[in-house]
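Changelog-adjacent note: as of this version, every example in the card shows the full chain rather than a window. The one below runs 220 residues end to end.
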Amino acid sequence: MRMKHDAEALELLQKTMKNTLCSIREVMEIIVNPLCELAKIQVKRKHLSFTTILKELQAGTNHRLSKLSSVLQQWEENNNKYLPFKKVPLNILFYNVEGWGTRHLEVVDLVYKVDASISVLTEVGELWNKFNIPNFNAFHQQGTNPSGGVCVSVGKHLRATQIQLEIENTVFVDVFNLSDPIRIIGIYWPQGQEHNLDDLSPYITQETIITGDFNASLEE
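Full-length structure tokens:
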């Protein structure tokens, strides 16, 4: 059993490293290389280290670009050339964890597999804050039983804030840095809890997504 767990951890680490390397490559292609082009630093020919690139950008390599701030300003003026606007789909994952402590590796793997920017996780239990999804911020609302609780995890490339409300088993998160801000309402209502969707009405906006585990009957 231990060997299986170690193998899963190694596989997850390899996937995380691959994603990290891809992110570094994107940063180089989208930000660093255009900056170096403006500053007349020939990165590809000289095979400079990243720290050397930053030092040369800071010092400046010609009279027109003597400071990094000047490079950044010129880059911003030409950002349409290097950063064309492109709409991409927003993937939102909902998953009933049934115990974050024993299934966190499975959750992390699933989040990266579906390329989710936002994850709504229910039944996270009391160990919800013992493990993190790399590069995600977590917003949690306590449950009414030890195995309950709901968590909304948002990728750090997005800005998110939690709305503090005293509604049990329900978490409200506003997400920005999108074409339009959205509100995520994540719910875990255990069996036996009285359900009243009217309690949510004052907080539902035009761009609201409600998801979770309602444990509701057909009559409800």
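Structural remarks: DSSP finds six helices and eight strands in the chain.
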